[in-house]
Each structure stands twice: as C-alpha cells, then as structure tokens.
Design a protein that fits this description.
Length: 301
C-alpha cells in the first residue's frame, strides 16, 4: 500500500534496498529511537516482539495483541518514513488471523513481517525448551499470509518465514522446513538460533541450491547474549544474506545507560555528573524536527 507522496509501497522499497545489498536494520523500540536510526543514516528499521513486549513491562511470550504491535509499527513508520520490518510472533492465531495480521500491519505502514513456527506460547528464539508446530501447519499460515500480501497495494509486502528448527530438530530439518515455507509463498527466510558463521553459510548455500532460479531473501538475526556469535554485516553479505536485524541492541544500550544513571543519581543526589552523557534539549528538538515558537506540522506518509 503506497504512502502519500510515494509511488511504491514500503515493502517494495524494502525489496529494492535488499536487491542493492545487505540491509542493516536496527530495532526501534519506539518512534524516537526510530528517528535516531534514520538520523544515523540507516535505511530501514525493525520492530522486535521482544523489545515491544519488555517496553510494555511483560516478557516475550506472546502476551501482547496485534493492536499493540501495530501501534508500535505505525508510530515508528509515521515518524521516520523508513521501511519497517516487524515481528509478528506466531501470527496471533491460526490462518484466518494471520491474514488479518498481514492486512493490519500493512495498514500500519509495515514493509513486511515475519512469522515463526513455534508453538504458542512462544519463547525467545535463543532459549532452550522451544516446541514447533507441524511443518504443514506453518506452511498453511505462510500460504494465507502470502495470499493476503499479494492483494495489498502493489503486492510488495514482504512475508518472511522464521524457523526455530535448528535448536529443536537440527540443521537438516531447518533447511527442509524453510524450503517448504518458500514453496508455500514466503519471500524471505529467517533461520533462528544458528550457532556459528559456518551454519549461516551452510543454510544460505542449501537454500540457493534448492531454489536456483528464485529470489529468496535471507535474514540474519544479530542479537546479543544468545546462541549466535557476533558476526559483521559484511560477512553476512558475503554469505548471501540480504538483511541483518539488530532487534534489541538499542534497547539494551539505552536501558544499560538508564540503570547506571539512576544508580548514580541515587548515590550522588544530583544529575550534575550525568550532564555530559545526556542528549541536550537542542539535540532532542533537532531529532524530532521541532523549533520552539514555530508550528510543528505532523508528518504525512
């Protein structure tokens, strides 16, 4: 669904970026963070289910609604205009709800979403004890998602299928499941919980072998403190990945700084020594595009 003043949808723009090279996609935990991502020169943003959940004060176990996620997507897209790829967990229900989720995310301005093949209630992809739905169950969700996506706007909305099979059934099963999801209509694949750079390379090679004449986008999750080692985006690109998400990185940096600052304020009784670490009033106003005394115009996307 093309935005006002634009000739192509966010999804089509996101595809074009990935066609040009591997897209670094930091996670925005709110619109202000999204603006900082845009100001830093990034061309896309990500909305993480984990970040969206913990910002609401709840764990990432599927407690939030599709409306909660759409609100985050809408605010970030309206603020930044960047293509936003968004987490949709397990689709908030079965096939019919998956279709509604795709439509709602597109209306909110998302460029695409990813669905995962975990059983509900899901858990973080880098934790043990996950359980998967049968492959044909996930394939049905992907089929419904893809059909909905093709009916929206210019048809560019990206359907990404995430498989958590590596940590449950092994790499061979992960490739097999992922291939089924492509056959079911997925535009992009997200292999979660891979443990080495070699596994990422092997997965990409296997998908290229299985689909030699089809454009299948590949997403890598560069999260911290999990099963995946820190890998540079240039290395991911060399392996054939088109997008690298950093889902909770900025939230972790921000909350790490907040916790330290609060401890220092509690200890010292003053913010005097915190001032050098603060964003100034002028920097904040510059980030949101506000000049005191001048009417601020809401953005049109």
């Amino acid at each position: 669904m093309a935005s006002q003043g634009q000739t192509v949808s966010p999804g089509t723009r996101f595809r074009a970026l990935m066609d040009q090279g591997c897209v670094a996609t930091p996670g925005a935990f709110n619109a202000l963070c999204g603006l900082a991502i845009a100001q830093a020169g990034f061309s896309a943003a990500y909305v993480s289910g984990a970040a969206t959940s913990v910002v609401a004060g709840v764990p990432d176990v599927g407690l939030l609604t599709v409306g909660d996620f759409c609100r985050a997507v809408r605010e970030i897209y309206q603020a930044t205009g960047l293509p936003v790829l968004a987490d949709a967990d397990t689709g908030f229900g079965e096939a019919e709800m998956v279709r509604k989720t795709v439509i709602e995310y597109a209306l909110a301005g998302a460029a695409g979403l990813h669905l995962e093949d975990q059983q509900f209630p899901k858990r973080c992809g880098h934790l043990d004890g996950k359980a998967l739905v049968p492959p044909d169950h996930m394939a049905e969700k992907v089929q419904w998602a893809a059909k909905a996506a093709r009916a929206i706007g210019d048809g560019g909305f990206v359907i990404c299928a995430r498989t958590d099979a590596r940590g449950v059934e092994g790499m061979e099963a992960a490739v097999k499941r992922a291939s089924l999801y492509v056959e079911s209509g997925a535009d992009m694949l997200f292999p979660e919980g891979l443990t080495t750079a070699a596994e990422f390379a092997d997965f990409a090679k296997a998908i290229r072998t299985n689909f030699p004449s089809r454009r299948v986008y590949l997403l890598a999750n560069m999260t911290e403190f999990g099963k995946t080692p820190i890998i540079n985006i240039k290395d991911f690109e060399a392996m054939g990945y088109h997008c690298v998400i950093y889902p909770v990185s900025m939230l972790r940096v921000a909350m790490g700084a907040v916790s330290k600052a609060l401890a220092q304020l509690k200890s010292e009784g003053s913010v005097a020594n915190l001032l050098p670490a603060m964003q100034t009033r002028q920097e904040l106003y510059g980030l949101i595009g506000y000049t005191p005394g001048t009417p601020w115009e809401a953005r049109v996307r």
